[in-house]
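Allow me, if you will, to draw on your knowledge of protein folds for a short while. I am sending you one protein, given as its amino acid sequence and as whole-number tokens for its backbone shapes. Kindly check, if you would, that the fold set down in the tokens agrees with what the sequence suggests. The record follows directly beneath this note:
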Amino acid sequence: MSHGGCTFSASRGNIKRLRESKAGRLHESRSWSRLAMDPFSQLILTISVTSFFTFQWLFHKVSPWVSTHVSPGFLGLSEKQKVEWNSRTVSTLHALLVGIFCLYILFFDDSINEDPVWGDPTLVKTNVAITTGYLISDLLLIFYYWKAIGDKFFVVHHLAALYAYYYVLGQGMLPYFANFRLLAEFSTPCVNQRWFFEVLGYPRTSRPNMANGVAMAVVFFTVRVAVMPVYYSRMYAVYGTEAFYAVPYGGRLAWICSSICLDIMNIMWMHKIARGCYKVLRSARRSKADAPHENGKAD
């Protein structure tokens, strides 16, 4: 009897623990449901969707209309060039919007500066939501106009960025580092402007092209290379802390590995930009030296 009573008691204990486990899972499920329906989460989703449709509208309607009235050379471009022109115009607008917002957060958002891993991500989420909408919009355009602007590298880049942004938008982690990465967008307008000058037939040694080339090299170095010590010093400062280990493995992978890969590419691009800038400046100096003076003599 005693053995049977112990068995019955153990069974009741197992049933109780099973019920508590189910209740716990149900509570957790309801908590996630409430989180998914959180007003701020809905706002972020709304911003992403609005961003997507806004950039589609800018590409299909605004850029062609404005470009036709501002740059007469736009009408003489081929259809493929017009597609890339509109794509780069939208890219420039996105870069300026997100970049300015990024600077504001970096200088005035004390929460993420004090706690770069788990600080209040409200403003960063808003900025990342805008970028997420843009990236999805750009991916759609890349696939649809593949013959004109298709690029495997950009597809991989966009998908990798969206994977990293999932942890920011979905779990609110690493806001400082996600925002810091958006500083790189400031180099985009100069890169796009270089293409605009090229397709419009501006000589590489023309003053506008040279000024843009120097600006591109300086800005690219400033926002993508010179900031590396600051970025990695903050990463090193939080590495191994309790906040660091609270980040799931996938988040750490997206954060550290993507940062290293992107910065290797940034250094390679900086090398190419610096060489190109040097060649253009050297060529311009030679042309100026070979140009005759009014008296017919060369310099």
Summary: Confidence is low (pLDDT under 50) at residues 6-37, 293-299.
